[in-house]
Amino acid sequence: MRKLNRLEPPACLVENCWVWTQDFVLARQENPSFSFSWRSKACYQGLRQVLSTMTQGRCSFCDGSVGSESRETVEHFRPKSLFPDLAYTWSNLFICCDVCQGKGDSFDELLLKPDELDYSFTRYFVNNYKTGEVEPNPAASEVDQKRAEKTLKLYQLNKETRKLFRIRELKRFNYKPEEDSIDDFNYRFFLE
């Protein structure tokens, strides 16, 4: 998981967040199975564009490509089913791939958020370049190691296919032409 710097939210979200949130919370109180919607297709498309720009078209959690290898989705970091009052909150929204979206309604306060002010990959994780695995940093505090473990588990960051993709991308990166940027590759935290 790579450090993200959050961009400004789209104007439509700023303008509508409060009303949409109140409507959603009230609807959920009346009917707990009430379905969430973005209320405006244009706003949702704009939101996805800003989130995708923020990550250079990569998943906010695994840093794999979205849109070509995986469906691009918007992840509610704190699930809207458990935190309906955050359903339209900008700081709770991330661009996400299908696999990471599979965390569903699972949530734990230990879960790492890539735009936390003090987040850095090396604080929490180390890479195993032989296996492609991402591991908790053994030099990290006990709490930081637990946060890393929880994040690896919930976002399935060490799923077998992901480890293989990271090794493949590392090989491609090592043979890259000089004019290529690291942003031309997936799994940049594994390459840095």
Describe this protein's structure.
It is a single chain. A hairpin with a 4-residue loop joins strand 3 and strand 4. The model has no long low-confidence stretch (mean pLDDT 92). By secondary structure, this protein is mainly alpha-helical. A two-stranded antiparallel sheet has the order 1-2. The longest helix is centred in the first third of the chain and has 20 residues, at 11-30. The chain is 39% helix and 8% strand.
Q: DSSP helix count?
A: 7
Tell me the series of helices and strands, N- to C-terminal.
HHEEHHEEHHH
Low-confidence stretches: none
Q: Rg to the nearest angstrom?
A: 18 Å
Sheet with the most strands?
Answer: 2 strands, antiparallel
Helix content: 25-40%
| N-to-C CA distance | 12 Å
What are the salient characteristics of this protein?
single chain, 192 residues, two-stranded antiparallel ribbon, 7 helices, 8% strand
Topology:
Layout: H1 11-30, H2 41-55, E1 73-76, E2 93-96, H3 98-101, H4 121-124, E3 125-128, E4 133-136, H5 142-154, H6 160-174, H7 188-191
Antiparallel strand pairs: 1-2, 3-4
Give a short overview.
With 192 residues, this protein is mainly alpha-helical. It has 7 helices and 4 strands, in the order H-H-E-E-H-H-E-E-H-H-H.
